[in-house]
User: What shape does this take?
Amino acid sequence: MPRKIRLDIEYDGTSYHGWQRQKNSSSIQQAVEEALERIIKEYRPVVAASRTDRGVHALNQVAHFWTSSDIPDLKLLFALNSALPKDIVVKNLKTANSDFHAMKKAHSKLYCYLIENGKFPTAHRRNISWWIPQKLNVENMKTGAREFIGEKDFKSLMTGRNHLKSTTKIIFNIEIEETNNIIRILIHGNGFLKQMVRAIVGTLVQIGMGKISPKDLNSILQSRERSKAGKNAPSKGLCLIKVFYEPRELKFETLSNLCRPANPLTFYH
Assistant: This one.
């Protein structure tokens, strides 16, 4: 009897053109589907909670697929990891309820963006951070971040043409932390437009450089023009930290608390 399987996946997106299958480029989805097909002897499309862009990473991407295979969950987990490239790891695999949907049932997502803000970059973070040698004014960035919080029209932070019925999203909270020349920008929202998180970060960096004033953000959002906001931050600094499936009230929580009891943000310290 067919069953639905949930996957929790970690990956280094450096070598891939994003999650979604591409005609002439490698993708995370393709790698997972091909490994899965070799094991269960049938092609099954794998649906993810977030279609991460080229070069974007994930600590806890969530996906699902249907299968008629009777291979037990634990055995399938080990087999799948043995068939996957080393930069993709399935952390958990289990049979889910038939009504579970990785994308449609997601209530919110938490992203982390890393910025190296020292005179020199660090070698071991070169693929997961954006090096900016100019000293950023983090307090001004925090002031600007507050302007993004709430239910707002984020069209001015969306890349590409608008085919959506609405460009309104809810940002529950943004936290900015600075430790030893590492700036972490944590963004928690109910959903994001195309490359919206990178646009938020790029705009905050412009504020940190003094090129945009925090007071200008309201007018930038109201303009609904992409050219008014900052350029997209490089994709390599962005990581999908967690996808939440439990309904949450519209209140501003500490983002580290959202990740308990197992706090994946420690990976980025």
User: Anything to note?
Assistant: The longest strand covers residues 168-179.
